[in-house]
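4.2 Preliminary Data

To establish feasibility before requesting continued support, the project team ran the inverse folding procedure on a target of 160 residues. The structure was first converted into the token representation described in Section 3, and no sequence information of any kind was made available to the design step. The complete token record follows.
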């Protein structure tokens, strides 16, 4: 706990922690159990496999087994980049050029790496999300019941 406290105190930028709790999705596991039951030739083993599947459904159906996922959100914003015109004493806006974008991206990646190292010192592993993972996260936030059942829509290839 103290290590995590030190990590949070070491940040010179804001961050958010999102905790997502969901019923554990075991649809694929239950399908595998059914496939095993169908392939099994021994009638006694088929009954045992079926009972095991019912047992697992009963345990997870009560909502007791939850999956928790933690996300650390490292925000970065370039709404208007301003510089001071020293001669006139005025603020002037700079348009977002390739160079400004490149510098901002580097700074964001440095922040993400700093967070990752800080969490690693606490014994936690942090992995940056890929585009498709971010899309799935937002989709699941707004379609919770479908996500808990294991349904995700097909995303276009350019998002992967």
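Position-by-position output of the design step:
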């Amino acid at each position: 706990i103290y290590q995590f406290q030190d990590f949070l105190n070491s940040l010179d930028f804001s961050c958010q922690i999102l905790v997502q709790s969901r019923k554990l999705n075991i649809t694929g596991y239950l399908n595998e159990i059914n496939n095993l039951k169908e392939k099994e030739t021994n009638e006694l083993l088929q009954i045992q496999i079926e009972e095991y599947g019912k047992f697992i459904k009963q345990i997870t159906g009560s909502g007791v087994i939850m999956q928790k996922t933690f996300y650390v959100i490292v925000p970065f914003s370039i709404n208007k980049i301003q510089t001071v015109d020293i001669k006139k004493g005025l603020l002037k806006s700079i348009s977002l050029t390739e160079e400004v974008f490149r510098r901002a991206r580097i700074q964001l990646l440095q922040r993400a790496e700093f967070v990752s190292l800080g969490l690693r010192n606490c014994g936690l592993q942090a992995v940056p999300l890929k585009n498709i993972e971010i899309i799935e996260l937002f989709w699941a936030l707004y379609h919770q019941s479908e996500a808990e059942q294991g349904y995700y829509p097909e995303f276009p290839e350019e998002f992967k």
